[in-house]
Amino acid sequence: MGERAKGCCPPMDLMRSEPMQLVQLIIPIESAHLAVSYLGELGLVQFKDLNVEKSPFQRTYAIQIKRCGEMARKLRFFWDQMSKAGLQPAERSVTQTALSFDDLEVKLGDLEAELVEINANGQKLQLSYSELVEYKLVLQKAGEFFHSGLSSAEAYQREIASGQIGEETLETPLLSEKETATDSKQVNVGFITGLVPREKSMGFERILFRATRGNVFLRQTAVDEPVIDPVSGEKVEKNVFVVFFSGERAKNKILKICEAFGANRYGFNEDLGKQSQMITEVSARLSELKTTIDAGLIHRGNLLQTIAEQFEQWNLLARKEKAIYHTLNMLSIDVSKKCLVAEGWSPVYATSQIQDELHRATHDSNSQVDAIFQVLHTREMPPTYFRTNKFTTAYQEIVDAYGVAKYQEANPGVFTIVTFPFLFAVMFGDWGHGICLLLASSYFLIREKKLSSQKLGDIMEMTFGGRYVIFLMSIFSIYTGLIYNEFFSVPFELFAPSAYVCRDPHCRDATTMGLIKSGETYPFGLDPAWHGSRTELPFLNSLKMKMSILLGVSQMNLGIVMSYFNALFFKNNINTWFQVIPQMIFLNSLFGYLSVLIIIKWCTGSQADLYHVMIYMFLSPTDEISEENQLFEGQTTTQLVLLLLAFVSVPWMLLPKPFLLKRQHNRHQGESYAPLPDGEESLLAEPNHDSHGHEEFEFGEVFVHQLIHTIEFVLGAVSNTASYLRLWALSLAHSELSSVFYERVLLLAWGYNNIFILIIGGLVFVFATVGVLLLMETLSAFLHALRLHWVEFQNKFYEGDGYKFSPFSFALLDYDEE
């Protein structure tokens, strides 16, 4: 939502969604448009569609919606024209004067008509200009044909007169003058001139020859530069041609072939004097047309520049008007057709703000009657609304991707802010890689204002939206990297010297016999001496596996605790006593006990085998525990009690709840007859959304559902705990991959003492680190952390069957919305 004045809203609370209310607004017709407009600027009312049974064409403001669509079409036309002209809309100015809907419609219509007329005139002028350019080329090139032919004929006549006839050429007449004089039949030879696309010239010549059986004479010459085709408007390489023929049939065939090949024909005069006169006239007309076209382009550019300066304002106004009329169509009109009745959801804290906006609309529209605001009482489930900021939005979207919280349900997003980046960091622990992520997220944070106003690609948009998630992930990765003591898999003595020393000065047996502890325990994180030792992998496996179990059991317990707070908030005592408590007992009797054993073993340094302890807790619960596996006094008795509690908790979860729900239903059914409410409240109840009212209680269905829920929890307690071992597996994989890249690429290249190999090895190391560890591993750890939250954590308490609060707000209008 947009920023609101200080003191108008209660402090932000992400734990529970905002208290919502169903409100009814009775707005006079004359102030309805302005009231909806002001509520759109406020953005705190989600209107309900009260005209569901009506088609879009039967609604009150269907004509206005159509007008808005027509305005949007005109704006898209302007956008296309500006894009072709290389213009960008200017940024919206606050000082620009606002136009009314009718004024904007008239203005857009006038501008469209003017622009269409300019485009049409420009196209006609450009067509004439292109035709004249081609005509001039025909006059020039064809004139050269006739001029060269005339020159050849005159030269031949001179040779005949002098009696010196040279060798015959292609231009030598086939018949002598005597032969032509004795021929009694007169032949009329005609010709056609024009331009044909160069790529079609060979086919054009071939078809002419075949269609006329060779009874044509074709001359072609290439035009030096491409010309604009009058038909397509594109630049095309063309040839000027002259076709000589005899007879009307040949002429008709040639004309059809020219039409088929897209050849443009132009008239031509054989008289050389008239040819030069035509070239002069065409050149003059071309000059005049060029001046006219340039003036038209300048006028068109000025008009588009004027449109571009106000395009954003007009576009926003058109989309606002369309949204307003679309909302008005959701309102029902009363019998007298003087008022519109609206119903919708709004936060309780927004009551005074909504009333103020309604009063302002009444005042500004000079209406004599004020709008009526009243709260309706309903059993319908309200929408879920969490007020988030730019920091918490990404975390809330992670939760909403699983399912929107039920109204007033405990929100996992509060804990996700910390637990999500922390669990990610457990799998991604390397403070060198964490610094790389920190630099990447810092870039987005520093350029936040600039990037938020730009259109980014899909991947960049997603990354930018999660910049605060990546930032916290990098901070936690640096923290866990310091605990693991890994900087690109290299350990450092950051906080103190190592507590271990080698057995001999050369450390020859460091990886075989091991090291000797000689100093104080390393104060923070893993002692660097563990890296590279023979016990590194067993030690790290044991450490990370046990740590994963502790983190998993803690988060699952947190989920059950949140289930308790949900039951407490909704005053559901059945869930408290017959769901929360047995679940807590079952989980902690087994895996809570395992977590305690892990902590005791760490604190005492015991060599007990916890696998053996947990297995024989089930197989032989009454047998005495061996001395090496005993961690505290009375361990056998404790295990027996915990095992009995775990077995008791299963029927505790399964059996009582269905019977109690049936008893509760029967009691409510006996109380179903009650006095009618006063006033109009009897009309406000919505029995369709009543989950208890008069619905028939299916005991078998409820019992089967509870059976499934119980089995799911019992099996899930085991599988979910095992699922948290992915923290250990991915952490180990990340560490080993980082170690392989460092030792097998960078150190190997360093050992050759060759600058060329060193550069190649360094580049391979950088690309492998960025591509595999910083991109693929980041995505992998992100998805696994997502699964742990959605499945292992949220299924303990989160129903996620609500629907999101989607208010009517101008701030949410999409720029690309049509």
Automatic annotation (TrEMBL):
Subcellular location: Membrane
Membrane topology: Multi-pass membrane protein
Record keyword Transport present: yes
Subcellular location, principal: membrane
Keywords, comma-separated and alphabetical: Hydrogen ion transport, Ion transport, Membrane, Transmembrane, Transmembrane helix, Transport
Gene Ontology terms: biological process: proton transmembrane transport
Residues that span the membrane, as ranges: 422-446, 467-484, 547-569, 639-655, 755-776
Keyword DNA damage set for record: no
Pfam families, alphabetized: V_ATPase_I (PF01496)
GO cellular component, one term: membrane
Family from the record: Belongs to the V-ATPase 116 kDa subunit family.
Entry function: Essential component of the vacuolar proton pump (V-ATPase), a multimeric enzyme that catalyzes the translocation of protons across the membranes. Required for assembly and activity of the V-ATPase.
Protein's name in the database: V-type proton ATPase subunit a
Record organism: Penstemon smallii
Source organism phylogeny: Eukaryota, Viridiplantae, Streptophyta, Embryophyta, Tracheophyta
